[in-house]
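Review box. Two proteins, two foldings.
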Amino acid sequence: MLLVSISSGYSGCMNYDALMAFAVFARHRNFTRAAEELFISQPALHQKVSKLSEELDVPLYVRNGRELTLTEEGRIVAAHAREVGSLTEDVIARLDASKRRGTVALASGAGAFLHLIEPVIPRARKGPFPLRLLTMRGHEAAEAVRQARAHVAVGVFEGNRHGLECHPWLDVDQMLVVPADHRLAGHSEVVAADLEGESLIVPPEGHPNRVKTERVLSGVTWHNAVEALGYELAIAFVGHRLGVTIMNDFVNLPDGFVGIPMLGFPTVTFEVAVREGTPHEGARWLCDLLLGANQLDD
């Protein structure tokens, strides 16, 4: 039995087996698939989830037609269950005679993995914890850490730090990417006025980078040539002469392209985030490795 305190209204023993079963159910939100994964019958799984709900005196899910949806309390318990499972895996691994450790999961965007984190991966793979990589957008990576689906996240977490312990990692400016023979290719820097009449490759409407671009270029006439997500895709469209694009200046450009510092954009800070108060040894180890690697690179 596991002694926990979910809220000021509850303090008691929570059945570990039921908690782990609920974590599987919460992932599937389907009793049939969850029972199959657990190798138990559906009635047995129903009983475990019902017992856990009774112990906590809160509803863990609701039924909307044929769909099962976690309640707010259910989401809290599911995050707690994932954290407990991860910590248990780590403790068991540390007690094992071979000293093998539990997996540590790192979540970040594809661009950050390719251009920022990739040099650290070989060092991380030689470390004491097996590494698992999860590719997702910044706000999704932050949510994955909050919900204990990942241990560490790297990204820009402006206004999205609730429940996270964030460490500044790298300050990033913007650059204009153009073909090497473009009229602006020889400039040492560019400002908004230099893009008058240009065709731009931009993220979809509502994307944070699109909002920033529209704000900086508010006094300039420009044409929306292509809407695209991802550095590689945007660069490919620049190569097809569909327009120019603005992106983070850490991106390594292929031959035939020039990156010119773009003035007027605010500097953004990439951060390394772990769950607030996390006791997970692997999360702390990977966070320190990433922060230390950036200091060495400087």
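Next protein.
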Amino acid sequence: MQILDRLTTAVIAGMRVVRANQGRPTTTAVKQADGTQVTPTDKQSQAAMLEVLQGIPGTYIHAEESDRHTADAPVGILVDPMDGTRAFAIGLATSTVIAATYDHTVRQVSRCVIGEPATGRIWCARDGQPAQLLWHDFASGEHSHPTHIGGEWDDKRTSEVNDQLTVLVDVSHGFKRGGRQMLTDAQTAKLFASLNSEVKILMPGSNGLHQALAANGASSIAGSLTLAIGGPWDVCGALLVKQAGGFCRAFKRGFIGLTEHDPLDVLGYDVLVTGNSPAIVNYLAGKVRAV
């Protein structure tokens, strides 16, 4: 079985766990590292995924709900068993399941699979190949033939901002990771105020879903902002966007502000901007840099 197929099988295993528990009451705990939440479903989904992913030659696994990992192989498998835990915990069905590979030789994410348990949609991409969408049927265990996504973008790209465009954003508050302050509450409020008069903001609650929808190329979705990166899995969808014909910019926060970074080097930055045209990506990046 090819690695992309293993990733897809693992994502489906995680999707089944999440789907079975969606809308049900759950307990939550708060992680000290970044203040995000974790539920028993996160851990159950991860266990199901790791059962599929263990033992792939030349790889190690870095999973969100594991205490530690050792990067002792050229390829890392990145696992988020439930992206959008806060949304899940309050009863929303917008969470996704993510598995990806990161190639240390070229320092880029090389494969990415994002699954949506509520619908059975699965987005897949690998370097050098068009991004694809398939639908999984949980009753039969079968899924549809993959179709390429982003193919209609040539007549949907947006060069000018207008108030009917939707920008998907992950947080409306400040965020710290490992003691490092990303955007503060005041900076995030300033960013929202700057965007509110020019575009529509939507917050479904899952970065994986944001990037997958941006990759789909819908005419009303201008792009997405990932401001609270809890781990590299939160931005692996950049590969989906790029392989669907979209555009990305990434930034690392330092003493001199934000510096440009390779969007596919998901281990090395703090903010991801995606868009359906260079003009939209530059517009959104400018808004982030201005705060």
